[in-house]
Design a protein that fits this description.
Keywords: 2Fe-2S, Iron, Iron-sulfur, Metal-binding, Oxidoreductase. It is built from nine helices and four strands, in the order ααααβαβββαααα. It is an alpha+beta fold.
Length: about 270
């Protein structure tokens, strides 16, 4: 059966959202560019992007609901179904997985009794795999409403979700203080965080992220060892031993040019003989 048109927001809600939407739209030379923050705005209203939210975005931007739906379903930060107050994303991409991300996800799945994308019966926690939290130097990483909890273990992750479910809260390893998913969505829509000190607490990159920058600026403190670029003379006083490479990135790689067992052959287009 064809679906009926989505219902509109109540008049007072629509009036409030329309005022917010005009503030967002005014930031862009082309109103269509405001679609992503507007989707966060309607997500902040009900905790997920509803059909009513899609209709609202389409109407204020002069788009079709199909155009808005195509964008909302492309980006994983937009929920299409109701979820928990705290979205707990466990990175299971390569480095985090090797460092324990897979074990953390499995431990939380069993501990919470839910699967990927599911929400606990109390409505507190939504658990999900995350492909990459862009924090490999702090692996394994868990994100709660897009705030970082670094260097996690199975036990620390269990304690984290237990604290959230019990209302005790939790402090991210770095970044702003934790807030609810709806509050986070409104901030992502481009509205200021009203909590005292939240903006100042956001801070910058952590020490592990800045190690390379410090070395590039000549700060040699710490145990990091980086080899010279290929072809550059070794550092004074260092006697390189046979087979030693100061950095794995400077070690010989088996490429088609250096590996006689795998010579480069002619490249053909798919389907050519």
């Amino acid at each position: 059966m064809p679906r009926l048109p989505a219902p509109d927001y109540p008049a007072d809600v629509r009036e409030r959202l329309a005022a917010d939407a005009q503030e967002v739209i005014a930031r862009y030379p082309d109103s269509r560019s405001a679609l992503l923050p507007l989707l966060h705005l309607v997500q902040a209203e009900e905790g997920h992007v509803t059909r009513t939210g899609l209709r609202f975005c389409a109407e204020v931007l002069g788009l079709t609901t199909a155009e808005v739906t195509a964008v909302a379903t492309f980006y994983t930060m937009y929920r299409r179904e109701p979820g928990g107050e705290y979205q707990v994303g466990v990175c299971t991409n390569t480095l985090c997985a090797v460092m324990g991300g897979d074990a953390i996800f499995e431990g939380l799945r069993r501990h919470l009794g839910i699967g990927n994308g599911d929400t606990t019966p109390d409505g507190k926690i939504t658990l999900e795999h995350v492909e990459c939290n862009a924090a490999c130097d702090f692996a394994p990483v868990v994100m709660v409403n897009w705030e970082f909890f670094d260097n996690q273990t199975v036990e620390s992750a269990k304690a984290l979700v237990d604290d959230l479910r019990a209302g005790r809260g939790a402090d991210p390893t770095r970044g702003a203080p934790l807030c609810t998913f709806r509050e986070t969505s409104r901030i992502l829509a481009g509205f200021p965080d009203p909590r005292p000190g939240a903006v100042e607490a956001s801070g910058g990159a952590g020490p592990a992220s800045l190690a390379g920058l410090r070395l590039a600026k000549g700060d040699s403190a710490g145990p990091a060892r980086v080899g010279p670029p290929r072809g550059a003379p070794p550092s004074p006083g260092h006697r390189q031993q046979p087979g030693e490479h100061l950095s794995s990135h400077d070690a010989p790689q088996k490429t088609s040019a250096s590996d006689p067992d795998h010579p480069a052959g002619p490249v053909t287009e798919e389907g050519e003989g």
